Amino acid sequence: MYKLNLPKKVYFKTGSYTVALRELNEVYHAKRAFVVSDEHLYTAGIVTPVIRWVEKQGLRTAEYFSVGDVPAFAALRAALPSVLAFKPDFLIGVGGGAAMSAAKALWALYENPQLDLSAAVKDPTLLHTGEKAQLALVATSFGSGAQNSPFAVLRDDEGKLVQLNSQCLLPVISSTDAMFTASMTAGQVHQAGAKSLAQAMRALAAEDCCEYTGALLDQAIGCILRDLQAAEEGCPAARERVHNAAGIAGAAYGNVTLPLDAETRLAPMTAQELVSNGRVAHLARKLGYADAAALVEACQTIYG
Predict the structure, then answer these.
(1) Cα separation of 296 and 225, whole Å?
(2) What 8-state DSSP symbol labels residue 144?
(3) 173: β partners
(4) End-to-end CA distance of the chain, in Å?
(5) I need a labelling partner for 299 at 20 to 30 A (CA). Which of 170, 226, 273, 285 fits?
(6) Buried residues in 95-124 as b, exposed as e (16+ CB within 10 A)
(7) φ, ψ at 130 (rounded to 5°)
(8) Rounded distance between C-alpha atoms, residue 137 and residue 156, angstroms
(9) d(CA 120, CA 163)
């Protein structure tokens, strides 16, 4: 039996984060929001509009901006006392995959301060959320699709890459707002698009990819292949489409089993494995490629 698990509300359009976060007060009657983001995004002024908008809705805010490239167990435990003292009704992750992973993990720890993260990696049933607070995620860049997926990619106490994976980590509000991508450089756009494309192709070829997830991945892969170059060149419409494609891909591979790899985060598949996959061959025909090999080659040209 297959299931398609998604965030409760998914907002996607330039400027949509204001509509999404208006719900904190209007729907959930929240009073306090704890914002989790990246120090670089805060310095660049990316997070400030979000905080100001939340405060305009009448909520008090507190912030944590020391996420790092991959949130570490130690850093999360160090941040937890601030969350517990503030007693938020909402946690808001603002940024890329790292910030959103940190927000998910802190949410789980806030709900259960005694939670052993290492144990939860091995046994997702230990994760419980939604009793003390809710989670909202605002994606400011594309690549991870983490705003629509139930994963938190973390660094354990031994320095290994690990993953919390539970539907309990899906946010109640997800925002994919291309307004935040305007300041991304061409290189950042390419890197993010390549990451999203690689993950989407891996998910498409997964054994438990089904009709629903496959359709989402077809849409995401086709969009990235068509629009990434224009997005790199600064076309706002193309950036919005690629940003949405990453969110669509995240929604799909959040429902597909994707094993982690210590270096690439998602274990890669060989070109031959992809070429021999029936869903990849079907997508190749759908997108107008001669065969699956031609599609895989086009993808590898982008993500190497």
Answers:
(1) 11
(2) S
(3) 9, 136
(4) 35
(5) 170
(6) bbbbbbbbbbbbbbbbbeeebebeebbeee
(7) 95, -5
(8) 23
(9) 9
In the block, tokens 């849409």 appear at 219
Count Cβ neighbours within 10 Å for each residue of 229-261 and write b for 16 or more, e otherwise.
bbbbeeeeebbbbbbbbbbbbbbbbbbbebebe
Long-range contacts of 227-231 (CB under 8 A, 24+ apart): 228/189, 228/190, 228/193, 228/194, 228/197, 228/302, 231/189, 231/193
Determine the Cα–Cα distance for residues 141 and 247; give it in Å rounded to an integer: 10
Burial of 125 per CB tally in 10 Å (0-12, 13-18, 19+): exposed
101: enclosing H helix or E strand: helix 97-111
DSSP 112: -
Dist CA 140 CA 93 (whole Å): 10
Give the contacts of 299 (CB within 8 A, at least 6 positions apart): 197, 198, 201, 221, 225
Residues 6+ apart with CB under 8 A from 281: 275, 291, 292
Contact yes or no for 273/205 (Cβ under 8 A):
yes
Whether the pTM exceeds 0.85: the reply is yes
pLDDT tens-digit readout, 64-122: 997 888 999 999 999 999 999 999 999 999 999 999 999 999 999 999 999 999 999 99
Residues written for the chain? 304
Supply 67's token pair: 């996420």
Q: 136 is written with which tokens?
A: 């909202």
